[in-house]
Amino acid sequence: MFGARPWVLGVLNVTPDSFSDGGLWNATDTAVAHAHQLIADGAELIDIGGESTRPGAHRIDPETERRRVIPVITALAADGVLCSVDTTRAEVAQAAIAAGAVLVNDVSGGLADPGMAPLVAETGVPWVLMHWRGHSDVMQRLTTYDDVVVDVRTELLRQVEAALAAGVDERSLILDPGLGFAKTSEHNWQLLRRLDELVAVGLPVLLGASRKRFLGDLLGRDQDSPPRPPAGRDVATAATSMLAAQHGVWGVRVHEPLVTLDAMRVAVAVAGAGESPGRDTPTGPLAVHTGSGFVDGARLRAGRLEV
Ligand code: PMM
Q1: Which residue has the CA at smallest separation from atom 10 of ligand 1?
Q2: Of 39, 42, 244, 299, which has the fewest beta carbons less than 10 angstroms from its beta carbon?
């Protein structure tokens, strides 16, 4: 059982083609306004991405990616909003950190760009290492596992070792099983079912189940009907976030924070854990779960994750 709820990261895709919110927050002003709505709905950190990672998506050039995310991060940082950048490119991450991003969310976990680990080592920003086997245009062909939970953990630990070898401080690292990335629906369910095996590694764990296809498949009217569209998947997302909280994850990444927070507050109240930190004191200390206990997450504000 958990003693405090996880961080809630609000998703902001400044892309024309992300599967759930593609095209909605394409211009800087609409993106910034949406980020403020996510904050008003309880998100504590806004995760800003400029390149779609939906299955089959093709890559864009770095300059386009940079042009999409940097003005948004600059504006939000000036407003005092905590931002992370969702990128696999070191040059985009570097510009984002310079613009005020406090965390790098790298869905490739350092595998896509050899420049990412040295950048993180030098700047000391928290770095999400997600389990990843290849870019979006090929990943759905890379779904062979012996035991998906064991294999994902082993491959993530290899990514951790590479990060450490490059001089990254272990205290900067956050792991993510990468639901939907080179995974079938059944793989995602197994990873959720056995999330404690990843939490047991002892590093903070982030989970991104929000509105993903496997939830749509579950919610289709019957086996032969099409998946429920992304906007109808928020209650199911909240349920996965709550279960993940009970497993002791450090954070959840969601499109609709309000529903997820409602679900997590119920779980916190039932656990007798008292106030859900962060909700009522958005700039106060937030609990960071590390597998071995909870520590003051306010350090993230200073761009450093102390565990
Ligand atoms: N999923 C997406 C994008 N970025 N980052 C992390 N750390 N974990 C995820 O599961 C993840 C991610 C794809 O979803 P989106 O298109 O809704 O952003």
Answers
A1: 208
A2: 299
Interval between CA 176 and ligand 1 midpoint (Å): 10
183 is catalytic: no
CATH architecture of 7-306: Alpha-Beta Barrel (3.20)
For the chain, 307 residues long, the average pLDDT of each consecutive 10-residue run is: 75 84 82 97 96 84 96 97 97 98 96 97 96 90 95 97 96 96 96 96 96 95 87 96 89 96 84 49 33 40 41
Q: How is the chain split into domains, by residue range?
A: 7-306
* Catalytic annotation, pick one of 212, 213, 233, 279: 212
Local structure of residue 205 (DSSP, 8 states): B
Of 8, 173, 5, 176, the closest CA to residue 82 belongs to 8
Structure tokens at 199: 């939490």
Task: Give yes or no: 265 in active site.
Answer: no
Distance CA 190, CA 299 (A): 33
